[in-house]
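PROTEIN DESIGN WORKSHEET
SECTION A - STRUCTURE
LENGTH: 285
TOKENS:
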């Protein structure tokens, strides 16, 4: 049986060749299907990301099984990743269940505590050949049940980033350079000088969270400057649900999920395509 992959080789290749692997937040069979089918059509490596409430909603075991089916079916690199997990014991459980890539988000902790918590996850995950992403600095906005007020958001300090990577042994670093989770109140502004400095000081792949609602040219520039993984959630959810809403408006008596889910999947597919092309990961499988 073909294995679902960790993000290690995938992101290293992206770093070397100057593109990014998209990490799409999926929630159920339908959203997972759209992502893997589209990635396969464009021959793109892809990361399936699940937040804590997604694993609770869909079941970690179901998600791993669906990712395994996709890996068997398609000849592209597919990884399954825990996104924004804060609970170390839960991470350990899901890693044992087959998630071979995880984020431990201890960015809200004091610096030394962030290092301690992340190091514990790295030590555990590496025994299972699973990769670990951690965040330094703090993104504003809402992801899952996690809400960070703008005033509590904090940019990544490049010198601290180097120290953090050395001390924790993480495989990739999520940077805070101005993006936020969800939709922006004004226009997204990214601190590219800071990103350049982090890239110069840190050798692991860099991750951009909160990439929805950020103009394409800014995401492109971030990738040129060294971002190797781009996380996308909100930009997929909105067209999916809008299309389903439209379907019910037009067909108020509809009740067949196979019918009303289909326009949602089609709308989401267009965005997945667009994001893969934006990341430049097409043809890189
Ligand atoms: P968006 O919802 O802004 O796309 O953020 C997704 C994300 O960063 C998931 O970790």
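SECTION B - SEQUENCE
RESIDUE ASSIGNMENT:
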């Amino acid at each position: 049986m073909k294995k679902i992959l960790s993000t290690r080789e995938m992101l290293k290749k992206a770093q070397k060749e100057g593109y990014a692997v998209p990490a799409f937040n999926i929630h159920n069979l339908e959203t997972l299907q759209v992502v893997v089918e589209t990635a396969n059509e464009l021959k793109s490596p892809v990361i399936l990301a699940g937040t804590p409430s997604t694993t609770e909603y869909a079941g970690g075991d179901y998600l791993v099984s669906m990712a395994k089916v996709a890996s068997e079916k398609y000849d592209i690199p597919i990884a399954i990743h825990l996104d924004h997990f804060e609970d170390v014991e839960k991470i350990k459980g899901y890693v044992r269940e087959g998630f071979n890539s995880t984020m431990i988000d201890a960015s809200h902790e004091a610096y030394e505590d962030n290092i301690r918590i992340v190091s514990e996850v790295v030590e555990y995950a590496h025994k299972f050949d699973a990769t670990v992403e951690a965040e330094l600095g703090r993104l504003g906005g809402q992801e899952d049940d996690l809400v960070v007020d703008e005033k509590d958001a904090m940019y990544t300090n490049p010198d601290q980033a180097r120290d953090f990577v050395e001390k924790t042994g993480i495989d990739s670093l999520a940077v805070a350079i101005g993006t936020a989770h969800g939709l922006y109140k004004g226009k997204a502004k990214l601190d590219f000088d800071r990103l350049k400095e982090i890239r110069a000081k840190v050798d692991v792949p860099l991750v951009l969270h909160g990439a929805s609602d950020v103009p394409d040219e800014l995401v492109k520039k971030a990738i040129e400057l060294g971002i190797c993984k781009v996380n996308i959630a909100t930009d997929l959810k909105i067209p999916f649900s809008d299309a389903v809403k439209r379907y019910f408006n037009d067909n108020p008596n509809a009740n067949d999920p196979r019918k009303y889910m289909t326009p949602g999947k089609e709308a989401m597919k267009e965005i997945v395509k667009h994001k893969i092309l934006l990341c430049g990961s097409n043809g890189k499988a």
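SECTION C - NOTES
The first strand starts at residue 21 and ends at 25.
The chain has one domain: 7-279.
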